[in-house]
Amino acid sequence: MTENFSSFSCQDNQFKESVCIDAYRVYDSCADKDCLENLRANFSESAQNVIDQSTSVRVKNVSVITTYIDLEAIPFRKGYYTVDITYFFEVNLEAFIAPNVMPAQVSGLSVYNKKVVLYGSEGSVKIFSSDYTAGDSDFQNAVTGNLPKATVQVADPVALSAKLCSPNDCCRQPQCRVPDAICRRFGGEFVRSNNVAKAVSVSLGLFSIVQIERNVQMRIPAYDFCVPRKECVASTDNPCDLFSRIEFPTEEFFPPRTTDDNNQTSCGCRRNPTTTE
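Above: the chain sequence. Below: its structure as tokens.
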């Protein structure tokens, strides 16, 4: 049987030397909790036909397809940058056409744009690299400038609500070009907002972290090389052998309890600290 060694072994955990590494350092970041109200949902022609016949809609879930991020330096404020973020959301809806009839499943696209200002320091050098590119004649990577890099981390949005509305009453969609890959995802071009009988607006909650990073050289303490000590487990063609290695999913059958502190008793009731047994 395979022994349960630790994944890596760093002997003695004692500082041995300082080393210089090339890594990304976060210079500035911000966390946002945005409630996005009345975003216009856009549909392909087939999905819009279903919406036009619907009497009500209900949002099932919303997911982030991708984000477009633009980074620009702010004039007269050295080291600061605007991060322009465009979110593309896939909105999955249930469209109710008639009573006692199963709702139709339709998907639409919502777009949201925001800007944040973050500090990214300064740099004006050119960067060359000798990295090998597979399939080419060992060309070097293209020269790049020493600009910071903006990254966006976003959780799956919380679907709050969806409603039918008149095209004139729904908020206008921000003007942006939808990438061809996203159009193909929904089966073709989206119907123009002035050519629809009914429109859909959705509201959702969005949690995100935006940060600016720079590639820098940093000196850090080094302890030792970390050598893997875990033994590799060979695959097997026997499905029962594979299944036998899977632990019983107890948590799936017994949902966890909410515990506030160590004074929680086994029956789920808080013990009175003044009571003596």
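Residues 45-53 form the longest helix (9 residues).
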